Amino acid sequence: MSSGSDQRQHLGDLLRDLAPQVLGALVRRYGHFDHAEDAVQEALIAAAAQWPAAGVPDSPRGWLITVASRRLTDLLRSEEARLRREAQWVPPAPSATGHDDSLILLAMCCHPSLSAPDQIALTLRAVGGLSTAEVARAFLVPEATIARRISRAKQRIKQSGVPFALPDTFSTAALHVLYLMFNEGYAATAGPDLHRPDLAAEAIRLARLVHRLLPKDSEVAGLLALMLLTDARRPARTAPDGTPIPMDAQDRTLWNASFIAEGVALVTAALPRGPLGPYQLQAAIAALHDEAPSAAETDWPQIVALYELLLTLTDNPMVALNHAVAVAMASGPAAGLALLPGLSSLPSLQGDHRFHAVRGHLLERSGAAEEACAAYATAAGLTGSVPLQRYLHAQAARLRSGRQDT
Predict the structure, then answer these.
(1) What spatial distance separates the first Cα and last Cα of the chain, rounded to whole Å?
(2) pLDDT tens digit sequence for 53-66
């Protein structure tokens, strides 16, 4: 990559990281979520145009806040109720350095007056920094639909009159949105165009802030631990061309040891405090994977027991599917396959590539190569990820080749 391309990439990353912080600062000072977002976008455009030639200012966040504040002031003063609004705008000015309002912005995006899809869409847009088009791809819906959803969410926040301040606690919805935000960056569920490691890193950063605010909340600690223990495997989970590498084939020496140590410490401290929650249990499962010296030495019976406990707390079909995999690893593929018919009728799994990929893997382990080949092909047709399609087609081709050789 050329030096100019490197500089543009660095500038783009910097602006994306600063965008939610600048938006939070403006909303805290002025309110008017929708106008503040417009002003921040204009400030970002100005920075993208000016900084390559003039250089990045000493305080890029302060520069953006200043420019966005001026634009927002212009927008607000143009409204008919200028005087009444100005009386509400004048709390103490925000510090241009060192103050991060992202956590308050997260709480605001997860306001209880919003539906769960609206909360997620608005958080990905305002806190995660995704464009409306990227959020639309994540939801697999038209961009216009997401634009209306985000606009409606901002209007409801405005009408609610919710103050821009840190809450005493964070809702389950806010933690759920953070986890979805992490997964968008880590797993690229909507395909390669949304593979955003920076989004996963931002979710971890926000989870750290929530944990710092609520250090005794076991589920907050569990969520942060789960993110760290999952993200620790990132360096080994894909080949250079993006093809996924199954966990049992990953080079574990590449895993992030400091993230594993931190995550294990968090979940170890959280579990005895209670009450027990799904993030703590998922983190405990991830810790067993990460601490195992090899795939063969993984404590699968303990993982099965944790999944069975997790199933008493959630009806998430992916938890049930992962439980079937764990049972297969602990007791053999036939035991795992016996659980799949009960899951195949769930609408959320019928069209999900992961169900068919798991079925293909268990069928292959049981010796049913022809059925496994068909399951891999079905899974490949259901995913939008090109690298994953390539991997699944390769699995099917390998089985076909094996049948021809016999």
Answers:
(1) 47
(2) 888 888 899 899 89
